[in-house]
Fold:
Amino acid sequence: MRNYSHSDLFLLFFSRAGIQKICSHTNKQAGKRRAKGSKARPWNAVGKEQFCVFLALVLYMGLVRLPALADYWSEDSFFGGPFCGQLMSRNAFLGVLWNLRLSDPEADEENERKRGTPDYDPLWKLQPFLNDLQASCKAQYHSNQNLCLDERTVAAKASIGLNQSPGDEPAKWGYKLFVLADSLSGYSWNFEVYAGKRRQASGKGLSYDIATSLMDRSLGSGYRLYCGSFFTSPVLFRDLLSKETGACGTIRECRRGYPATKPNGLDRKSPRGTVKWLRQEEVLFLKWRDVSLCTTFHNAQDGRRVRRKIKSRDGTGRNASPPAPIQDYNRRTRGGDQSDQLLDGCSVPRETNRWYKTLFFRFVDIATANSFILHREICEQFGKQPDTQKMFLRALVFELAGELYPLQTTSLASPYAMQHLPEPLARADATSRRSKATRGRQSCVYCRRTEGKQIKTPWQCRSCDVPLCAIVDRNCFSKWHRRFLPSQTHACV
Structure:
């Protein structure tokens, strides 16, 4: 199997043909503006290499956050130095950002003339790129059996008719995404942007149409879907089961098809741990405490037990029996939370004045998160230690920038490389003569990652702030900087 670099994995989702189309549309948009007499800065046609550098800077801005965009090109070393300026000038970056176009400008004008008719597509400015990215995400990963369906919100304040205000999401206002993710790894396998009323509605509700659309036929059968109360309905679950796909999710008791169980339901006087369940053919309805669940592949009880503490003065506990479907649901829906954490960990923080650019940057986050998941699984398959997400993105920035600026990339940190010096973990004035070789020792990060050993060392890198061995027969200090900081190895001691 070939040895994939970080940029190889990322370009699986941003193909060179797709980048070439974006460059073509962007150049056409810039020429169109200049033809109208727009007071724009001088424009040089952008190519694939320049656009890769643009993406590298976008990812860099997700790792290193500054108050204003202009601060990244500030000559003041307080704001981080000349990294961005050596890759691309500020005017060139702003020119690409200003003219960025994901669809043909002429086709946009034709679609705009259809506004108010059934043929108008509100997502047209994003649709060509969205179709390519969806196809790439499906083609590059074979999902595990368990999938989770989730809602996400991309924060934005622009009012264009696509905005939503979800009550239970961190973002108070923005664009809504529906994402089908792998429950184990968090890989975003399929996703869809909410654009209002659907053209071809099934008549069974929006949540039904979205769920069936994301469960693409190319996925196959034999999967198990976990979803929230927005999607769960007996009609959807029966239709999925007819396609050999099981489903489990919390359900609203007001949902059509939910059995009327109020005369025999749970109340405050019910004993702790009481479970009520009802099976209608292949669909199981279950209620435990204030949780209502619907599933097509579980039994109501399978004997699993968990220890819970009762609120009493002596703090004694007793065995309670949460239903197996609820335990399984809580465990499998963590994949959606893991996917959210990967996306929000180093996401692009910039809002733009164009809705499709805001969503484009969110899709860049999805591409980087998916490429990191592929990197992690490839390393685990061959018994290698995977990079952390931060180190993965750092290496990806250098590799994307290095396609056009290989020499500058290796010398970017030279003014600051002398900061990478070994220094003791313990203060000299706080260390006695007898304990100066052992005081303050910590586990070497390189030994722990590469060999799985807990080897103590009194030394650390002053700039990286990580403990590293620095002795004659175990120079982890040098090995660490060669592997994780390849651009600065020439200046490390």
